[in-house]
Every structure is written in C-alpha cells, then in structure tokens.
C-alpha cells in the first residue's frame, strides 16, 4: 500500500540535520541481535503453540502413544527394542515398592522422545515441501504432474484443522538471491526509463559494485539469513518505517472503505456498536488462534506472524526512532468525538459487552454536551506531526497527562465518531466518493490518533472506514480483519437490550499546560496543509471485471498493471519507475517485495497502442508478451527472487560497514512516480455478490510516494467491477488524479477492445455524457433505485 513512499524516504531516516548518521553498532553485533530477537519470538510462540495444541499431532496423540506403549509392555511386548530398559536403569532407584513407577516414567520418557521425533520429522518434511515453488511457474489454469504430487504430499503432511500459527515452524526462510542476478534484473528494470547515457553510467557503477563490494556484503547477508528468522524483514520495519521522521498521515498510513452502495444502519451509535463488537470477537478468535491460516490454492500456507499486532498496539514516537508497543490484552477502546476523548470499557465481569450495550455507550458519548478542554480538541494533530517533534511533546504529556495518554495508547484500538456524513450519494457520486476517501486518509488533521494500529471511523450517517498505521503489518492482514468487521453487520439498532447499570464512558482529563499550545497549533497547521494538498479520486469501473479478463485467459492483476502503464504514459507522456507491492509471506516473517511493472515489454505495447500504423492483432500480441513478463516478475518476487528487498538489505549492511557504494546510493535516489497495489478480497465466503450485488467492498487507498507522482490501488469487486483509488499532490502541476482516472478508464476499454469478446465495450461506453456518467458509480438504474447510501 503506502510502503513505496517509505521505501523512497528511508535514506533520510539515516540523516540528521543534513549530516550522515553513523550506524555505530558492528554488523556482527547487529546480526546477533536480530537473531536473538528472532529466537526470543520463537520461544514465546513455541510455548503458546504447545499450550493451544497447534502441533499437527495434538497432545492427545502423545497420550495415545503412551497408552499404546503401556499396553504393549503389559502384554510383554517391547516396542522400544530395549530402550525402555536402558531408561529405567538411568532412573534413580526408589526401592522395590516404586518399581512400577520407574516403568511408567520410562514409558513416558520414551513416548515423549518418540512423539517429539515424529513431530520434528513432520515439520522438516513439510518445510522441504513448502520450499518448492514450481507451482508458481505453472501456466495459467494448468497444473503439471509434479505439482499435483506436491499438493498431495502437502495435504498428507499438513494435518487436519490447522490453527492460525500451526505452520509457522514449517515455513521456509526467505532465500538470499544471487547478487549477480539481482543486479542484472535491476539494470533490466531501469532500462526503459533511462537515457542511453544514463544507463551506460549505471551499468558501469553496477559492475564496479559487483567487483569491489558485492561479495563482502552478500556474505554478511547470508550469515544473517542463516542465523535470523528473515534476512530483511526486521531491517525493513526499522529503517523504512520506525526510523522515518516524516508525518504518518498521508505518507505512511492507508485507509479502507465500507460497502460501496449499502449502509446497514444509518444510526451512528448502532453501527459503531456492531463494528466494535465484531472486531473484538475477531480479536477473541485471534487470541485463541481459531482463525484459519491463509492458504494459497487451498494448500500452501502463508506466514501469520503479522496477525499478532493487530490489536492493543501503538507506534510510540522517538526522537530518532519509534518503537512498537504491543500489549497482551486491553479491555477498552479510546473514543474521540467533537474534540473530546473517552475511555469506553468493552468487557463486564461476564465477558464482552453485547452490541446493544456498546451502542448505548456510544450514544451516551454522542449525547454528552460537555465542551472540549483547552488544547484538547486539536491534541491528536500531534500524531500527524513530524515524529521527532511529537516525541519531544509526548515526553511532557507523560508527566502532565500520563493517565489519559495511557488510556489512548493502551486501548484495543481507536474510534473516531465523526460529526459529518460520508459515502456515495446520488446527487454527486464523484465528489462524494472523493470526499469519503479524503476523510479516511487525512480527516481534519486532528480527529485521528495516527499512532494506533488502526482507527475505526464512524460517520454520522452510519458509514464506516478504517485508517491503518503501516509499520506493524501490511494491507492483507488488516484487510482480513476488516472483511469480518463490515460483513457481520445488522440493520437498525444492535441486537440485545440496553444495560442501564453500565457506568458511563470515562471522559479523559488532559491536564495540559499552556506551553504545549504552540506545539499543537504548529502540528495542526502542518496537518491541515498536508491534508489540503492531497487530491483523492475514487471511481468504480463497471464496464467489465475479473470474469471478462478470465475469459481472455489472462491474469487479472497483470491486465490492470499493463493498462496502468498505458494510462500513465498518456497522462505524463513518458515512462517511469512503477512500484507494485507483492507479498513474500510464503516465507517465515516475510512481508513484501516490489514488482517493477514498467518493463521493456510493457513499453513496447504502449508505443504500439499509440502508433496508428499498428493493427489490433499486433498490439494484442505485444500485450500478451507484456502480461507474461509481468507474471514472471510477480512470481519471482513471491518466491524471494525480487530485486528491491535484496538491494535494500545490501545497502543497510554497507552502512553498518561504513562502505560507500555509488551504485547503491544511486539505487536509493530513485523516485517511484507511480506506486500501485491491489487490495485482495480474501474471504469470499462472507459475500454473496451474485444474490446481493450491492454488498460489495469499496477497497481502500494510500497517498502518493512522490510529490509529482501517483498512488493507485484497485480491488476486484465480484466478477464485473473494479474500483480504483487514485491520489496525488495538488501542489504538483504535473499530476491530476481525476485526469489519470479518465486515462485509466480509456486505457482499460482500449485494451479490452483488442479482444474479440471486448470490442463492443469501447463502442458502448466511449463518449458518455455527464448524465450517463453515473453509470461509472451505480452501474445500472436498478442499483440506483434499490440501494441505500
């Protein structure tokens, strides 16, 4: 999502006041500490896994094995082949009266050793199986005999009814690619956007890097990959996110929307009660590891480590580096309404409050007429300020308002009850959706606590939204939770009865000195300026969707990515480095990798589309070549053979070793003028888009990675709709989110018209008038009259 901006700006996190900040820790010490952190997490997770019975062979299987050994011993059979007798000899002699006890202990020890060996064998076998990535190379819609055999073996060794963290110790580690391959792929990726002279100079720097420094840096990375859980993820979290000193708002956070066409209830308190209850039920299932792990193809598990920090998590600002604070549990949420903060308990002695009880508590807040205290109304603007400034002010808050600050930072999550409505309207669908996106991404600059892992936003008309802090996890994790949150909603008031005995929500008291006022005012002005500079545009593309692309026997993601290259070229007149986020959760503690979508093949297709002499069959052939190339890059990224994370890790090692690399410095001076991401729908069983087509997700978006660039996200909603979220900076004279949106729509129709089955689309939808443009948002008149917003 918004990681491209952080990936570009992380070099500035290594500077202070224009001077280079030395990474004084020796590289071996840093690698040792990385491994120590990894093993500490492993031990904690191992204990939790053992208690909750996540082993493929449950603790009951040990009891069965022990009972079988005891029965065999009673029948004068020795399944241990003499080992149990040797174990008995090693046990202390407690006398003849305890002879039977020694036999039981020997059987228990032998059963435990045998059980552990079987489990270890199972884990090793499964890890070896999961290290196979040949299935990624299969042609679209086909499966070879080796892959079928692999799937059958995975099914045998995976066990039944896995829990969330069942596969963690069986996942392979992310491999360190060959440095020669990485440099070669990098040069190939920048060739379309560099002049001949600039490319030749870059190639010279690359060869010098390979000759002088690459082998040493690579040696340290291989050492770390052997010792630590993941050779790049902890450094990615620290240097890209936690060391960044730029404001979180717009630059790092991202947002997610509610249903596009439907609002289950217009009652703000009821919608908040239902949503909070659903999210806390999700947390309960998460704590019990009852959420099934995500499986690709129904078999290949993905890493679940990022789920651990969804709730009870806050990013705490530091002068030079932030840190993530995660609590084991929290029994309240922090609520913001009309400049006031409240602490709302979520549990009673009998357990989680009912949705109706939570609705009652939120309604009490909405009915509370008390005004905000001095400086309280705009206090949250500090979380949208540069991190160093917020860290300094927070140190005084810890002494002046420690209890209130702890109530916010220690909450399960943050809730903002907005006083304005939001969402799609019939009167002005385009402007209403754009305003909805802007409210979620930035708000008014002082009504979100951007440090929290996520903020639940409830608008006055019952619309929901989510603002997510990026450092703790990536979009698919929060997206999985969000799908459950808004898919389990009820009409009208919440179910249950009000509880008049519940104590009223506790109004937080901020004893703020007057000296803090200038800092809040400064932060507010900066946040409002940043918010006002963001140009958001959201539009649903309803002319065709995934089903049409599937009939063309193409990857839907690659189809969109190549069309985006055509749209961007028409918008800017040149090609640029393009960032597409791909997941590396096939590996233990993997996060993301970059797919560099602007390839020579994509550029050849775009030039052909703009050449009037090229025929449709010629353009279609080039389009298929570009799609195949993008698919190859995506598969390489998912299998740990991408470019950018490897170069990033090499750069960090060079900084620890104080080695100057002109090649790596040039790599991280590049700007991503087009940052893209697809938002996956992961739990299709929650949505019946065929019988209830109005209940579709709107997806989400993020800010641009470059001051003169675009941020574009998209989501496939059902089979026949794609929603795009576009962002840019109003201060740039080179970008316009609405203009790019029109180019994207035209590009998709032009590409679809290359196929015989899509030739009617261009004729049907090109040249729609202003009145007919509502089809972009509502799709059909039936939807317009039957849906409520």
UniProtKB/TrEMBL annotation:
<keyword id="KW-0472">Membrane</keyword>
<dbReference type="GO" id="GO:0009437">
    <property type="term" value="P:carnitine metabolic process"/>
</dbReference>
<dbReference type="GO" id="GO:0098794">
    <property type="term" value="C:postsynapse"/>
</dbReference>
<keyword id="KW-0808">Transferase</keyword>
<dbReference type="InterPro" id="IPR032476">
    <property type="entry name" value="CPT_N"/>
</dbReference>
<dbReference type="GO" id="GO:0032281">
    <property type="term" value="C:AMPA glutamate receptor complex"/>
</dbReference>
<keyword id="KW-0012">Acyltransferase</keyword>
<dbReference type="GO" id="GO:0008474">
    <property type="term" value="F:palmitoyl-(protein) hydrolase activity"/>
</dbReference>
<keyword id="KW-0813">Transport</keyword>
<dbReference type="InterPro" id="IPR039551">
    <property type="entry name" value="Cho/carn_acyl_trans"/>
</dbReference>
<dbReference type="InterPro" id="IPR023213">
    <property type="entry name" value="CAT-like_dom_sf"/>
</dbReference>
<keyword id="KW-0443">Lipid metabolism</keyword>
<dbReference type="InterPro" id="IPR000542">
    <property type="entry name" value="Carn_acyl_trans"/>
</dbReference>
<comment type="similarity">
    <text>Belongs to the carnitine/choline acetyltransferase family.</text>
</comment>
<dbReference type="GO" id="GO:0030424">
    <property type="term" value="C:axon"/>
</dbReference>
<dbReference type="GO" id="GO:0005741">
    <property type="term" value="C:mitochondrial outer membrane"/>
</dbReference>
<feature type="transmembrane region" description="Helical">
    <location>
        <begin position="104"/>
        <end position="126"/>
    </location>
</feature>
<dbReference type="Pfam" id="PF00755">
    <property type="entry name" value="Carn_acyltransf"/>
</dbReference>
<dbReference type="GO" id="GO:0006635">
    <property type="term" value="P:fatty acid beta-oxidation"/>
</dbReference>
<keyword id="KW-1000">Mitochondrion outer membrane</keyword>
<dbReference type="GO" id="GO:0098978">
    <property type="term" value="C:glutamatergic synapse"/>
</dbReference>
<dbReference type="GO" id="GO:0030425">
    <property type="term" value="C:dendrite"/>
</dbReference>
<dbReference type="GO" id="GO:0099072">
    <property type="term" value="P:regulation of postsynaptic membrane neurotransmitter receptor levels"/>
</dbReference>
<feature type="domain" description="Carnitine O-palmitoyltransferase N-terminal">
    <location>
        <begin position="1"/>
        <end position="47"/>
    </location>
</feature>
<dbReference type="GO" id="GO:0006853">
    <property type="term" value="P:carnitine shuttle"/>
</dbReference>
<feature type="domain" description="Choline/carnitine acyltransferase">
    <location>
        <begin position="175"/>
        <end position="745"/>
    </location>
</feature>
<dbReference type="InterPro" id="IPR042231">
    <property type="entry name" value="Cho/carn_acyl_trans_2"/>
</dbReference>
<comment type="pathway">
    <text>Lipid metabolism; fatty acid beta-oxidation.</text>
</comment>
<dbReference type="GO" id="GO:0005789">
    <property type="term" value="C:endoplasmic reticulum membrane"/>
</dbReference>
<keyword id="KW-1133">Transmembrane helix</keyword>
<keyword id="KW-0812">Transmembrane</keyword>
<keyword id="KW-0276">Fatty acid metabolism</keyword>
<feature type="active site" description="Proton acceptor">
    <location>
        <position position="470"/>
    </location>
</feature>
<protein>
    <recommendedName>
        <fullName>carnitine O-palmitoyltransferase</fullName>
        <ecNumber>2.3.1.21</ecNumber>
    </recommendedName>
</protein>
<keyword id="KW-0496">Mitochondrion</keyword>
<dbReference type="Pfam" id="PF16484">
    <property type="entry name" value="CPT_N"/>
</dbReference>
<dbReference type="GO" id="GO:0004095">
    <property type="term" value="F:carnitine O-palmitoyltransferase activity"/>
</dbReference>
């Amino acid at each position: 999502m918004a990681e491209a901006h952080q990936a570009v700006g992380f070099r500035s996190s290594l500077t202070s006041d224009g001077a280079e900040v030395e990474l004084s820790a020796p590289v071996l010490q840093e690698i040792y500490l990385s491994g120590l952190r990894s093993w500490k997490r492993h031990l904690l997770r191992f204990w939790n896994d053992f208690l909750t019975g996540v082993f493929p062979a449950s603790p009951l299987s040990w009891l069965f094995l022990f009972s079988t050994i005891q029965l065999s011993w009673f029948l004068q059979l020795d399944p241990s082949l003499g080992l149990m007798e040797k174990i008995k000899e090693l046990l202390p002699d407690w006398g003849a009266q305890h002879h039977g006890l020694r036999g039981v202990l020997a059987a228990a020890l032998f059963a435990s050793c045998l059980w552990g060996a079987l489990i270890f064998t199972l884990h090793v076998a499964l890890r070896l199986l999961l290290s196979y990535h040949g299935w990624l190379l299969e042609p679209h819609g086909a499966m070879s005999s080796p892959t079928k055999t692999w799937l059958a073996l995975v099914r045998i060794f995976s066990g039944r009814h896995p829990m969330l963290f069942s596969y963690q110790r069986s996942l392979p580690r992310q491999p360190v690619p060959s440095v020669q391959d990485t440099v070669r792929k990098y040069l190939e990726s920048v060739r379309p956007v560099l002049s001949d002279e600039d490319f030749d100079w870059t190639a010279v720097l690359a060869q010098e890097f390979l000759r002088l420094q690459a082998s040493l840096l690579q040696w340290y990375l291989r050492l770390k990959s052997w010792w630590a859980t993941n050779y790049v993820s902890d450094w990615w979290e620290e240097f890209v996110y936690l060391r960044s000193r730029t404001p979180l708002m717009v630059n790092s956070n991202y947002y997610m929307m509610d249903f596009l066409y439907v609002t289950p209830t217009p009652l703000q308190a009821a919608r908040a009660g239902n949503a909070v209850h659903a999210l806390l039920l999700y947390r309960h299932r998460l704590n019990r590891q009852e959420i099934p792990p995500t499986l690709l193809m129904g078999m290949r598990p993905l890493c679940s480590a990022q789920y651990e920090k969804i709730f009870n998590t806050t990013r705490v600002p530091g002068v030079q580096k932030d840190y993530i604070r995660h609590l084991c549990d929290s029994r309240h949420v922090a609520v913001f309404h009309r400049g006031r903060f409240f602490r709302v308990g979520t549990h009673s002695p009998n357990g989680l409050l009912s949705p109706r009880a939570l609705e009652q508590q939120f309604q009490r807040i909405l009915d509370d007429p008390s005004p905000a205290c001095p400086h309280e109304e705009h206090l949250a603007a500090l979380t949208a300020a540069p991190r160093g400034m917020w860290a300094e002010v927070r140190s005084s808050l810890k002494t002046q308002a420690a209890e209130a600050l702890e109530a916010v930072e220690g909450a399960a999550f943050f809730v903002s009850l907005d006083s304005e409505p939001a969402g799609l309207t019939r009167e002005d669908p385009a402007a209403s959706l754009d305003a909805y996106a802007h409210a979620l991404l930035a708000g008014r600059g002082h009504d979100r606590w951007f440090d929290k892992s996520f903020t639940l936003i409830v608008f006055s008309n019952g619309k929901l939204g989510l603002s997510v802090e990026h450092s703790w996890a990536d979009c698919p994790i929060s997206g999985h939770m969000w799908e459950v949150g808004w898919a389990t909603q009820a009409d009208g008031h919440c179910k249950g009865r009000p509880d008049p005995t519940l104590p009223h929500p506790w109004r937080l008291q901020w004893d703020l000195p007057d000296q803090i006022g200038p800092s809040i005012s400064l932060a507010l002005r900066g946040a409002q300026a940043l918010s006002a500079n963001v140009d958001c545009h959201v539009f649903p593309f309803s002319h065709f969707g995934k089903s049409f692309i599937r009939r063309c026997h193409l990857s839907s993601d690659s189809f969109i990515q190549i069309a985006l290259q055509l749209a961007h070229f028409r918008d800017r007149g040149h090609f640029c480095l393009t960032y597409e986020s791909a997941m590396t959760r096939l590996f233990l503690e993997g996060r993301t990798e970059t797919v560099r979508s602007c390839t020579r093949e994509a550029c050849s297709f775009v030039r052909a589309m703009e050449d009037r002499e090229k025929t449709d069959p010629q353009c279609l052939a080039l389009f298929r070549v570009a799609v195949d190339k993008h698919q190859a890059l995506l598969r390489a990224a998912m299998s740990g053979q991408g470019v950018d994370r490897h170069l990033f890790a090499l750069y960090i090692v060079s900084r620890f070793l104080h080695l100057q690399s002109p090649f790596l410095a040039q790599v991280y001076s590049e700007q991503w003028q087009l940052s893209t991401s697809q938002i996956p729908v992961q739990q299709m069983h929650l949505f019946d888009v065929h019988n209830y087509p109005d209940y579709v997700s709107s997806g989400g978006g993020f800010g641009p990675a470059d001051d003169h660039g675009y941020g574009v996200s998209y989501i496939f909603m059902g089979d026949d709709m794609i929603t795009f979220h576009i962002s840019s900076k109003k201060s740039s004279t080179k970008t316009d989110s609405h203009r790019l949106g029109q180019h994207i729509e035209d590009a998709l129709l032009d590409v679809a018209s290359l196929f015989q089955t899509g030739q009617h689309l261009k004729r049907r939808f090109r040249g729609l008038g202003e009145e007919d443009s509502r089809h972009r948002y509502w799709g059909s008149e039936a939807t317009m009259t039957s849906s409520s917003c």
